[in-house]
Amino acid sequence: MAQANGRKLDAKLNQGLNQPPPNCIRVLLEITVDKDARIPNPCFKSDGQRFSMATTTLKLLHEGMYNFTLVLSPQEVVQRLELVNRGSGLTEPVELALSEGKKDDTHGITTYITTWKCNLDWNLKNTRHELELYIHVEGFGTLVLPIQLKVYSPGDKSLTLGTRLRYFQYLFKRTSDEIKMISMSPFSL
Q1: Which of 26, 50, 94, 103 holds its CA 20 to 30 A away from the CA of 87?
Q2: What is the CATH number of the domain that holds 135?
Q3: Residue 182: what pLDDT?
Q4: What is the structure's pLDDT at 88?
């Protein structure tokens, strides 16, 4: 599965996702499910400016198992990956197990894969969970990827209403005293 995801993302990079500007890191975050998981692929919808963290809400299934594929350009070494649920008031990070980084010298990227079980509460109407994915990059610093999502119960038809997610693209720039996210955009299938 990891190699298949890496090949798909390599093809996407060939379609115009080139090297980032100096002092910048581009991160592609692809969220998928296994073919035999029997749950829908993730969808997203645009929210305008209604919510604080992002203008995009990702739709996931409660107790669904998801594969997170991270592609970093230029090639970087990720020391660890953590997930924080800001919306719940719990600020203690949960460390996610990462695959060993797979370098692709042709495209100048490194790919990492982890899995995550969506155990967030789905019983709250109109609640958006504000997650932050912390990527600790060796020699660069910590990248903070905001992910806003809504969790649905099994059988809820709203789970599949929206646009199928291809991946999120984040761009970060390091200045002398901080790392700032310059842009975040979802790309659809």
Answers
A1: 26
A2: 2.60.40.1930
A3: 93
A4: 61
Q: What burial class does residue 180 get, using C-beta atoms within 10 Å of its C-beta: 0-12 exposed, 13-18 middle, 19+ buried?
A: exposed
Pseudo-torsion of CA 129, 131, 162, 164, nearest 10°? -150
Q: What distances in angstroms separate CA 113 from CA 4, 33, 66, one per listed residue?
A: 11, 12, 10
CA torsion 80→148→73→8, rounded to 10°? 100
- Domain housing 84: 2-188
Q: DSSP labels for 149-180?
A: EEEE-TT-GGGG-SEEEEEEEEEEEE-SS-EE
Handedness of CA 144, 149, 153, 159 (dihedral sign): negative
Question: If you count them, how many residues does the chain have?
Answer: 189
pTM as predicted: 0.83
